[in-house]
Amino acid sequence: MFTDEDWESQLRGSLRDAEGLARLLPLDGGMKAALDRLADSGALPLRITPYWLSLAGPGPGDPILAQCLPSPGEFEPDPDSVPDPLGESLHRAAPSLVRQYRSRALLRASGECAVHCRHCFRRTLLPSERGYISPGDQAEAAVWLAERPEIREILVSGGDPLIAADGRIENLLSALRAARPEAVLRVCTRCPSTLPMRFTPGLVALLRSFRPLRVVTHFNHPRELSPQADEALASLIDAGIPVSVQTVLLSGINDDPDILESLFSGLARRGAHPYYLFQADLAPGTAHLRCPLSRGLDIYSELRKRLSGMELPRYAVDAPGGGGKVYLPEGIVGLEGDKYILMSPSGVRASYPAY
Ligand code: SF4
Predict the structure, then answer these.
(1) Where are the alpha helices (DSSP H) in the chain?
(2) Is the C-beta atom of 195 inside 6 A of ligand 1?
């Protein structure tokens, strides 16, 4: 059973700089140069919990390390990148609220994460957004939500909304529940994979008290399914809190049908629902981690042969620039040069690099 001391000491012991990392890992010249540039560039800083490092194998190409270690590729020119790949600034409804769909709204509750993922689509926003939502923004969001009964689901996102004391999380969820007693709260957190000890009996009971509530989390590799992650998932599921899982298709990390088959079947066996396999967004500094869409289609085709309906997530991409979710392969309506033409269910047209 996890305690508050477990997760708080993980955060206190996080690696945040090159010196700390060099004490634990041999760093090659490219890695040292990337770390130096990171410190000077204002890009998403390094942050790794000791727990996450404990999952890693040797070498910077390891799929656990490659998700959190900066690489020289982050600083290469990327003509396909889009500063705000999901167009969240276009859909801002209140200071910390984004509304892209009629029935859902997303609240950015925190700028903190246990591990900084190098593929994060909010990687240009997070460095300037430390800490939790302010009381003023929280109150404004609650008023906005109370006035819109057509919003059926409130996505509580970040950063990671569970990187805070239980009391602060309770204060936020109480305000949302008071504003919208019937709405489903979706808590979007990577803690089950990056900081599973966050799921203390106290936090699980707190989340349970705000049902209807589900946890939407993020696993990218079967190595993340550790005994501690098992315990976190089981504690949520046993408390009647459904768990859905999103995965990002990442070059050199999980772009392999064998790896994804193992991940998705492992999640389903634990009672979690593989929800989405996402084609990576066109966030700046992530081109080296993006699996080409043409290859992603081949991988998904193979997964459809191997996985049952309960194990197979939907393959999707967020249309660059804010057009909403496009399901793959059915949302591809053409190929122009080296770009696939996409059409979202609501009729928005966009393009995405094919190769
Ligand atoms: S946990 Fe989520 S929000 Fe935080 S860095 Fe990773 S992908 Fe981004």
Answers:
(1) 4-12, 18-24, 29-41, 50-54, 135-146, 166-179, 191-194, 201-208, 227-238, 257-269, 293-306
(2) no
